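Recap for those who missed Tuesday's class. We walked through two folding examples back to back. For each one, the amino acid string is listed first and its predicted structure tokens come directly after. Nothing is annotated here on purpose, so try labeling regions yourself before you check the end of the notes.
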Amino acid sequence: MNIRELEAVVEAILFAVGEAVEIERLAAAVEHDEETVRKIVRSMMTRYEEEDRGIHIIELDGSFQLCTKPDMYEYLIKVAHIPKKQVLTDVLLETLSIIAYKQPITRQEIQKIRGVSCDHAVNKLVEYGLICEAGRLSDAPGKPILFATTEEFLRYFGIETLEDLPILNQETIEDFKEEAIKEVEEELGNRESE
């Protein structure tokens, strides 16, 4: 196969699968080495951007996915059902950030950091597909479930790998601690006034 034929096969695979495909699977499908296939896909990514097309290829932690460009959304909703877009509240974002930076992590560890129950937030994040069960903590009583972020998390925030997450400085961490303390105090105050 020449390069154009390889690109056509890769494009067809990414289109038909509809979700991220690992580079290993793409390489096996086109019967070429991973580095060659990675170069082909990245060349396609560049060309799609240069040609100002309505689709693009994104990279997610060593996998590739063919997607509609975000600025095409307003046109899509005119012909398709409105895609379900989850609204992330402050509580969900806080819980998600704890999981993203501390993963894999148990529900109890999240609650210890937040200082309040996180059951609803964790359940919602699982429902939205942003986190998933990542095994169990075998050396703890009851073997609690471990949670980690998903590929959907990377897609949602437009990052390729977890290494792309911003590095938190000590001042930001202290701000988070102060906010968590205020939240706990407010919750305790609300309980006492009831």
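Example two. Treat it independently of the first, because the proteins are unrelated.
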Amino acid sequence: MINVAILGYGTVGSGVFKIINENNSHISRRAGDDVKVKYVLDLRDFPGDPVEDILVHDVDIIMNDETVDVVVEVMGGVEPAYTFVKRALEAGKSACTSNKELVAKHGVELLQIARDNNVNFFFEASVGGGIPIIRPLIECLTVDHIEEIQGIMNGTTNYILTKMEDEGADFDTVLKDAQDKGYAERNPEADIEGYDACRKIAILTSLAYEKQVDFEDIYTEGITKITTADFDYMKKIGASIKLLGMARKDDGVTYSMVAPFVVYNDNPLYNVKDVFNAILVKGDMLGEVMFYGKGAGSLPTASAVVSDVVDAVKRQGYTEKIFWNDTKRILGTVDAFTTPYFVRVGLGGEDAASVKAAVESHFGNVEYIDGVKSDEVAFITKVMSGSEYDKAAEGLNVVSRIRVSK
């Protein structure tokens, strides 16, 4: 018998409880042992809920029970999640989590504690919710050098951008709609400013390139400056705009960032809409492979967590080798990151021909996008670094600029 304790009975925790109970025979067969939820920890009471009989309010009951084999942390936030998971690992219990903040900040440390205690720390659900991405990176793509990762890693921002594109609605209107539907929090800053995606790409960059990447070092730009006019231009060139988490290696330099990108219709991420997420991985041998699905929600995320529980049971007695060490990886600066740019320049009282001449004197040959707004000139630049762009843009009346996915 494998006893599981769930820390937190919110959206994901209740999903974990439901899946283990309702699919118990299937899960136990796959795990090779009977799996049972022995405790659920929460500060609240849930009268009439099936969880009532196993609900506890004191974490020490779980930590001091030697029959608890796996602890599932789905509380969110760094504390007390970090303290609880660390205690569980040190007590010889494997731990599984969906907590991206915890993994981004303390993942490498918790992996080492798990190794020291011959148990496992798994976190499949911390990046793509129900989308499998962690395990493919550490188990299935082992022969490839990862050249690049591009991902739509936040369903809220993807929903907002989809509505702006398809319905022509402005950002504020769509944000309120997302909040009304429960896709966005009352305080949506973590989503719309890119902080949520930043923690996820920090985890993936650390795993792909095997050294610690601190999310504080990742350049992060949100979607609040994107307008419906930007999408009008996109329709002219068969492209869309997505908030991407990106990791890339160029000439031995690792880059990691979160920002809006122009994505053309030959990129598989182009068709990822609404609250769906997708992560595109480019390996030097495999080429491109994409992982797509629901990146959040009770049952999709809980499904990934329970898969980790099954893996933890199957690996009792030894720790899975995950290549992520605590040596800090120094990232290339955003000034050195190379990409084309989509740029809009206001006429400022001049005629279009004069502004185009100025644009070409600054940027060289560009690809113009005409026929959208009469009071500005829009174009796609050649591939250039961030510092080259900043220098070229000096003296021009730039309305907006968005990087273009190569």
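Answers for example two:
The mean pLDDT is 95.
Residues 31 and 314 are 6 Å apart (CA to CA).
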